[in-house]
């Protein structure tokens, strides 16, 4: 099989989590940049990356990289890429997205237009035609311009990998599945430990945790753009990737994962999403306010995305809400809590400074991942857990 460079974009600040995932899949990292990780892999890696990666937004096949400060240099750089090796004569191709940071070329629409023209010129010469029907498989492009360096990737994924296929019903401000997975992976939580989300909304944190505990690959029940790339990828590889994912599922596990929300209708939606994800039996959902949060077991994990309203009239409500979070943490004094929030007075209202703090961009919103660390379980309990496993 041919070896490619593959680009996996991710949430800014969570590159290290994705890097470990890629290593664990067995692939070599070639570059780590802000918001993306590049690795080497063959056609099988394209399939397995899409099926197994929990924290990547998509998998791009890197077609080329070059320096461009003018549109003429951009045109010639794109024209010099051997597009005929990737795109068949009837292929549909366009620039789905172009992002530019600290580069002389910064207009996305102009970049997209120049790139399309350059590709057409190249393929006209190679296929000896003046007209492309573009009636076949889709080959959408994504361009990254950073300090006048252009990286070009062909999108193998299609709809972003955060669209697992299970979230048919969403709450007001859901956290993306890929972000939720990355934040869980930043904690020491494992499938045999307690996890509670007291603001579960549509259930993303509990569902992603349950999928990890059961080792359910996040992309095993959805489709990808590159499945139609029969000129590059044997359809057998997609089937083998799905079979591998099915064989790795832990079907007889027991978990203690709970999701609570004050809104009963939202709890019903979360339960339905869990059913669609195949993990309804691994999660206990219940309508319950944060003020009623308690748990008899020790050394659990609270992982959540509590509200952090933007409107002024919500600020007073938030003070009381975060104070209740602080009271809950006092009751759960042996637990660790991990909160993603954009509320600037979160620590003040909780009444405790976070042991660790990490800046995370949730979409366009700047948020912080507050980490309140509890004590580790006694060594004897940890050894018992290992024996039970």
Query: How large is the radius of gyration?
Result: 23 Å
- Number of separate structural domains: 2
Shape: elongated
CATH superfamily descriptor of the largest domain: Vaccinia Virus protein VP39
CATH architecture of the largest domain: 3-Layer(aba) Sandwich
Query: Number of helical segments?
Result: 11
Distance between the termini: 38 Å
What is the helix content? 25-40%
What composes the largest sheet?
7 strands, mixed
The helix/strand order is EHEEHEHEHEEHEHHEHEEHEHEEH
Query: Low-confidence runs (pLDDT<50, min 5 residues)?
Result: 385-389
Description:
The protein has helices spanning 15-25, 43-52, 71-79, 108-127, 177-185, 204-213, 235-247, 264-277, 312-331, 346-350, 379-388; strands at residues 4-9, 29-33, 36-41, 60-67, 92-101, 138-146, 149-155, 194-197, 256-261, 283-287, 301-304, 336-341, 356-362, 365-372. With 389 residues, it is α/β, with parallel strands linked by helices. The chain has a seven-stranded mixed sheet with strand order 2-3-1-4-7-6-5. A seven-stranded mixed sheet has the order 10-9-8-11-12-14-13, with helices on one face. Strand 2 and strand 3 form a beta hairpin. Helix 2 packs across helix 7 and helix 3 (71-79) runs parallel beside helix 4. It starts with a strand and ends with a helix.
């Amino acid at each position: 099989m041919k070896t490619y460079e593959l680009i996996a974009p991710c949430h800014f600040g969570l590159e290290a989590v994705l890097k470990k995932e890629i290593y664990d899949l067995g692939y070599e990292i070639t570059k780590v940049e802000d918001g993306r990780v590049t690795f080497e892999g063959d056609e099988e890696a394209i399939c397995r990356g899409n099926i197994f990666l929990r924290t990547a937004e998509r998998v791009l096949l890197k077609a080329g990289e070059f320096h461009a400060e003018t549109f003429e240099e951009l045109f010639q750089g794109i024209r010099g890429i051997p597009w005929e090796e990737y795109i068949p004569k009837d292929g549909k191709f366009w620039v789905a997205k172009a992002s530019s940071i600290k580069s002389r070329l910064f207009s996305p629409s102009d970049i997209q237009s120049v790139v399309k023209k350059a590709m057409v010129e190249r393929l006209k010469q190679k296929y000896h035609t003046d007209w492309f029907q573009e009636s076949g498989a889709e080959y959408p492009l994504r361009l990254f311009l950073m300090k006048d360096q252009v990286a070009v990737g062909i999108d193998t994924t299609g709809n972003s990998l955060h669209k697992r296929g299970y979230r048919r019903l969403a709450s007001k401000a859901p956290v993306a599945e890929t972000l939720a997975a990355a934040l869980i992976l930043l904690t020491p939580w494992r499938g045999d430990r307690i996890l509670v989300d007291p603001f579960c909304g549509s259930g993303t944190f509990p569902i992603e945790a349950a999928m990890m505990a059961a080792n359910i690959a996040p992309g095993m029940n959805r489709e990808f753009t590159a499945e139609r790339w029969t000129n590059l990828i044997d359809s057998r590889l997609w089937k083998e990737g799905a079979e591998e994912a099915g064989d790795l599922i832990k079907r007889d596990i027991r978990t203690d994962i709970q999701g609570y929300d004050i809104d009963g209708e939202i709890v019903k939606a979360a339960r339905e999403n869990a059913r669609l994800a195949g993990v309804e039996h691994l999660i206990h959902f219940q309508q319950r306010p944060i003020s009623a949060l308690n748990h008899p077991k020790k050394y659990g994990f609270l992982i959540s995305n509590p509200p952090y309203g933007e409107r002024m009239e919500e600020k007073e409500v938030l003070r009381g809400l975060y104070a209740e979070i602080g009271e809950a943490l006092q009751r759960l004094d042996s637990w660790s809590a991990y909160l993603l929030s954009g509320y600037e007075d979160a620590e003040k209202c909780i009444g405790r400074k976070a042991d660790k703090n990490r800046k995370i961009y949730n979409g366009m919103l700047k948020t912080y991942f507050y980490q309140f660390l509890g004590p580790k379980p006694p060594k004897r309990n940890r050894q018992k857990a290992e024996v039970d496993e």
